[in-house]
Amino acid sequence: MFRQKLTSLFRPGFHSAKWASLCLGFLLFWFHADGVAVQNVNGPSSQNEKVVIPFQYVNGFIVVQLTFQNLLPLRFILDTGAENSILFKKEYADLLGLNYVKTIRLMGSDLSREMKALVSNGVSLQLQGLPPSRQNLIVLEEDFVLVEEIVGVPVDGLIGCSFFGGKPLKIDYKKQELTIFTPKAFQKERLKGFQVLPLEVIQRKPYLQAEVRTQQQNSTSVRLLLDTGAALSCLIHSNTDSLLRPTGKLLPGNLGKGLGGDIEGYTGMLWELKMGDLVYQNLIASFQNLDSAAIRSDRLTRNGLLGNLLMERFTLIFDWNGGRLFMRPEKKYNRPFEFDKSGLTIFAFGPKLNRFSVRHILPGSPAEIAGLQAGDEIIKVGRWPVFWTTLARLNKKLASKEGKKISLTWLRNGEEMTSALILRNLFDTPQILPRTLKK
Questions:
Q1: 3-state class of 310 per DSSP?
Q2: Which residues of 368-392 are buried (b: 16+ CB within 10 A; e: fewer)?
């Protein structure tokens, strides 16, 4: 058991349409196929009691390699915020001759608008170390999500919770490994150092009860989706409870892009988030109002979500059938959070995803003061052309030390421009190093 109070600011760099820099007022989280009656043929199986699967952790996303239809190597994102697996690129399904059994409607992450997709039965998906698993797959008619521009690496789809067939799943962010257990192997697993919290599973997706304060007084209990498809720390649906309305300085902006289009909201300070014996204070979080139809008592399943940028500080085990979440803090889990200090939101594009376009500028930010505008293409950082870098490295540079001067060169209507921006704390709130509280 442990208890840690963290007074910190949130990290990301920025997003493109699905993942975001909360310090800019932008957030990316994956859309979800809520309430879609799509059942898997079978979950993954193996003769081994547990299987370890490597993954790549990029820009706050867990990316795994799989073999599609026993032939085509693809890259999927692990998304515990989605029930079903989804293929973004219909051309792959058509190339291998998939048959579609029905058309369904998908509910977006904003829970307001539905769109159509196709369902194919018995599609073979194979993760490394596992035999092929026959799954029913949702196929988007159009890749409107443009995930590659967001993550900065090729991405073809996502794996939802139902893929694992209820088998315990371990996520080790530090080692970048997934472990799938048989029930027998999980009973033998050494769980020293883990805190155990109740896990609620709704439509095969994991939810955690937590306590939240948006101001010093009046805490309220919330249900948060544990969403590995979200490159953020915390998102609060502020109109699901009167005590969840944000206070203090708020940065308005586009929180990302869901099935319903752009999602508007705010970034601000969450006074306190408590999960079991773990307490975060002054956490930079996003706040979003859900559509009024989505907060009906018969539809509302959550008050918000927790994403990878908080969960990456722990090793997690999802015991779906046992209704338990095991959390073990990493060595530096209580380090100060990084956060964007430029005001830029950037997309990666081009065949090699090594060209970068400005999507949004936060008003009054260092980026706006330096003269950048939405639509500019950044071509140099300092003296170096950007094709030597990646979206992740660029994000990290823009989240570096306050007061640092960064020279950027960009193209606008064919004209080359250069200016320097000086990074600063967009919330004007100093970071306070975490301290351990004694019981």
A1: helix
A2: bebebeeebbbbbbeeeebeebbbb
Q: Contact, 270 vs 234, CB < 8 A?
A: yes
DSSP state of 300: -
Q: Distance (Å, rounded) from C-alpha 324 to C-alpha 322?
A: 6
Q: List the beta bridge partners of residue 123.
A: 135
**DSSP per-residue letters across 240-275:** SSGGG---S--EEEEEEEETTEEEEEEEEEEEEEEE
Q: Which two tokens stand for residue 105?
A: 């409607």
The residue type found at 319 is D
> Can you read off the two tokens belonging to residue 25?
């007022």
**Residue 92 near residue 169 (C-beta atoms within 8 A):** no
Residue from 221, 238, 210, 259 nearest 82 by CA: 259
Q: Which residues pair with 278 in a beta bridge?
A: 4, 275
Nearest to 75 by CA among 151, 162, 174: 151
Written as six digits, the tokens of 193 are 């150092």
Residue spans of beta strands (DSSP E) within 20-69: 50-54, 56-58, 61-68
What phi and psi, each to the nearest 5 degrees, are found at residue 221? Answer: -85, 135
Instruction: Give the contacts of 245 (CB within 8 A, at least 6 positions apart).
Output: 214, 238, 239
Look at strands 61-68 and 72-78 and give their pairing: antiparallel
> Can you tell me the distance from the alpha carbon of 302 to that of 230, in angstroms, rounded to the nearest whole number?
15
Q: How far is CA 355 from the centre of its chain?
A: 22
Q: Say how many CA atoms lie within 13 Å of 261 toward its Cβ.
A: 3
Q: Write the CB contacts of 436 (distance below 8 Å, at least 6 apart in sequence).
A: 3, 4, 5, 334
**Beta-strand relationship, 50-54 and 177-181:** antiparallel
> What is the rounded CA–CA span in Å between residue 111 and residue 260?
8
- pLDDT per residue over 222-265, tens digit each? 999 999 988 888 999 988 988 888 877 777 766 655 555 556 67
pLDDT tens figures, 331-372: 888 777 777 889 888 888 888 888 899 988 888 889 999 999
DSSP conformation class of 178:
E
How far apart, in whole angstroms, are the C-alpha atoms of residue 174 and residue 417? 40
- Tell me how long the chain is: 439
Q: Can you tell me which residue has the tokens 């799943």?
A: 169
